[in-house]
């Protein structure tokens, strides 16, 4: 339940008021994902899929219950978001409408003794409208992904991606 609390506080900070959070659809999207993920972890997969389906039908957002998303998730204008089954988000991330986070035709990569095929997203990342992050890539801390960007390569900390893998950081501004 700690993740729900972090989601709530992150959305409250964005909204400017804790009371406004209950009126935001995106709080319920995150809550349904948290319930779905919990039910998946305790092996109640049919019930997990029910909450996944509610998110898809009610809000047009597809967050696989197998994704690992730590607290601090803020979804803004969420319609059309897709988050794949093996995505790892390490907290405090803002995701705008139309974002896709997922695999890239089965490509895999080994990091720290284990393989991964979908994005790993570190803390304090903002992913803009209709951005696509595909394959075994790592978005390090404090990364901004611009609208309509397509990311298929790692992005170093404190960088901004403005188009297809065009990375801006302090060295090339």
From TrEMBL:
Membrane-spanning residues: 21-40
Keyword set includes Transmembrane: yes
Gene Ontology biological process: cysteine biosynthetic process from serine
Keywords: Acyltransferase, Membrane, Repeat, Transferase, Transmembrane, Transmembrane helix
Catalytic activity entry: L-serine + acetyl-CoA = O-acetyl-L-serine + CoA
Enzymatic class: transferase
Pfam families, alphabetized: Hexapep (PF00132)
EC number(s) on file: 2.3.1.30
Keyword Membrane: yes
GO molecular function: serine O-acetyltransferase activity
GO cellular component labels: cytoplasm
Source organism, top-level taxon: Bacteria
InterPro entries given in the database record: Hexapep, Hexapep_transf_CS, LbH_SAT, Ser_O-AcTrfase, Trimer_LpxA-like_sf
Family in the record: Belongs to the transferase hexapeptide repeat family.
PANTHER family membership: SERINE ACETYLTRANSFERASE
Name of the molecule in the record: Serine acetyltransferase
């Amino acid at each position: 339940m700690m993740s729900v609390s972090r989601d709530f506080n992150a959305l409250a900070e964005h909204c400017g008021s804790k009371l406004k959070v209950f009126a935001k659809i995106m709080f319920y999207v995150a809550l349904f994902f948290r319930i779905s993920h919990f039910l998946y972890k305790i092996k109640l997969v049919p019930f997990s899929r029910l909450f996944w389906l509610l998110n898809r039908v009610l809000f047009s957002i597809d967050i696989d219950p197998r994704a690992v998303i730590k607290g601090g998730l803020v979804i803004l204008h969420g319609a059309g978001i897709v988050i794949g089954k093996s995505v790892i988000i390490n907290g405090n991330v803002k995701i705008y409408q139309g974002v896709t986070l997922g695999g890239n035709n089965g490509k895999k990569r080994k990091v720290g003794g284990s393989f991964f095929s979908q994005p790993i997203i570190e803390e304090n990342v903002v992913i803009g409208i209709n951005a696509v992050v595909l394959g075994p890539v790592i978005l390090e801390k404090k990364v901004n992904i611009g609208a309509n960007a397509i990311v298929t390569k790692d992005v170093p900390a404190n960088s901004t991606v403005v188009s297809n893998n065009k990375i801006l950081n302090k060295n090339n501004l």
